[in-house]
Amino acid sequence: xxxxxxxxxxxxxxxxxxxxxxxxxxxxxxxxxxxxxxxxxxxxxxxxxxxxxxxxxxxxxxxxxxxxxxxxxxxxxxxxxxxxxxxxxxxxxxxxxxxxxxxxxxxxxxxxxxxxxxxxxxx
Length: 123
Prior knowledge:
Distance between the termini: 51 Å
Keywords: Electron transport, Heme, Iron, Metal-binding, Signal, Transport
Radius of gyration: 18 Å
Order of helices and strands: HHHHHH
CATH superfamily: Cytochrome c-like domain
Number of domains: 1
Mean pLDDT: 86
Number of helices: 6
Strand content: under 5%
Organism: Variovorax paradoxus
Low-confidence stretches: 1-23
Number of strands: 0
CATH class: Mainly Alpha
Structural class: mainly alpha
Signal peptide: 1-24
GO molecular function, one term: electron transfer activity
CATH architecture: Orthogonal Bundle
Domain Cytochrome c: 25-123
């Protein structure tokens, strides 16, 4: 019985430790990661080549005011949350097939998490 309790406690502690590290986000680093987005996406609410990223977290995909979205993006059918943004930033064409964003994706999971933290700060 003590062995089971020990294994259960150790597993819970390891899980908590791994989860904390996996979700550590750095808004300042995210601002730096955003630099590669800035050529097409503003953060001030005005559309450019791409839609503004101001307020993107929680906004319905394909619904930023003043931007003309592809049919694929308009039909995505969900609000942008951290999980959906992570998948999209990692591989836009896989996440929303048929979208027209000419970006291959960001492989680095930490940079994506930081970028999403920064985007979440843009209210």
